[in-house]
Amino acid sequence: MPALHKLLEKMGLKYEDLREDEKKTYEQWSTVLSQSEITVEDLKKFLPSYIAGIEQEQNDYQNSEKKDLYLKACIRNAKMIQAFILGPEQRKAWLEKNINERMK
What we know:
Strand content: under 5%
Structural class: mainly alpha
Distance between the termini: 60 Å
Order of helices and strands: HHHH
Shape: flat
Helix content: over 70%
């Protein structure tokens, strides 16, 4: 039984008892609760475009010094996360390549 349904039941309510604005909130919360968890594959797809967007924003010549520093930190953090995620895959590919070259 979904958590929101349990909450309504505990409060002695049914979905049909809700006002329109409450139903809208219920639907929004239900959508959030039904979303799947973020996977490593999701991050692999998301991070390159996120980094590109921040780098593009950083290229704006009107940025203040504080904003520029903040954007640099965002880029660095995102690239570190990306390296952490892709590291094992890249090491494996490198090792397989070297083994295959030595076997020739």
